From TrEMBL:
Annotated GO MF terms: structural constituent of ribosome
Upper lineage: Eukaryota, Viridiplantae, Streptophyta, Embryophyta, Tracheophyta
Keywords associated with the record: Ribonucleoprotein, Ribosomal protein
Protein name: 40S ribosomal protein S15a
GO CC entries: ribonucleoprotein complex; ribosome
Domain of life according to the entry: Eukaryota
GO biological process: translation
Record-stated family: Belongs to the universal ribosomal protein uS8 family.
Length: 159
């Protein structure tokens, strides 16, 4: 979809009052590739500059479940869903504990025995950070998936 915007050029208008020049710009509309990636990047950037709150929009169920996993392990504080009769917003309280978070795209299938190499590849150490998986039991971290003996797809990580 191309949008055409007409902007009146005000430079040199005093000289040419009879025929103002018009410029035409065409903009291509941007498409969001990953809503989860945008949400995690905005949280990471707000954490880096020391903000205490960040607003994530648009919201989705996957973002909410990912935030629940992060909150369960204490990496973020409370978060609140704000219904704006569109796609919704989420206001997240940051507590300064989040060092890095990201999305793994495309989502790779991970078996129970393959979780350990993924944690070694993505996380800085064994007892630090979590990988978030989407499994048949819901969106969980890698430790809970190993305890329940379920496999799934890798969504992202945080530490």
């Amino acid at each position: 979809m191309t949008v055409t915007v007409t902007v009146e050029r005000r430079k040199n208008m005093r000289r040419k009052l009879q025929s103002p020049q018009l410029l035409h710009f065409s903009f291509a509309r941007m498409v969001r590739v990953s809503v989860l990636n945008d949400a995690l990047k905005s949280m990471y950037n707000a954490e880096k500059i020391g903000k205490r709150q960040v607003m994530i929009r648009p919201s989705s169920k996957v973002i909410t479940k990912f935030l629940i996993v992060m909150q369960k392990h204490g990496y973020i504080g409370e978060f609140e869903y704000v219904d704006d009769h569109r796609s919704g917003k989420i206001v997240v309280e940051l507590n300064g504990r989040l060092n890095k978070c990201g999305v793994i795209s495309p989502c790779f299938d991970v078996g129970v025995k393959e979780i350990e190499p993924w944690t070694a590849r993505l996380l800085p150490s064994r007892q630090f950070g979590y990988i978030v998986l989407t499994t048949s039991t819901g969106i969980t971290d890698h430790e809970e998936a190993r305890r329940k003996n379920v496999s799934g797809k890798v969504l992202g990580f945080f530490y």
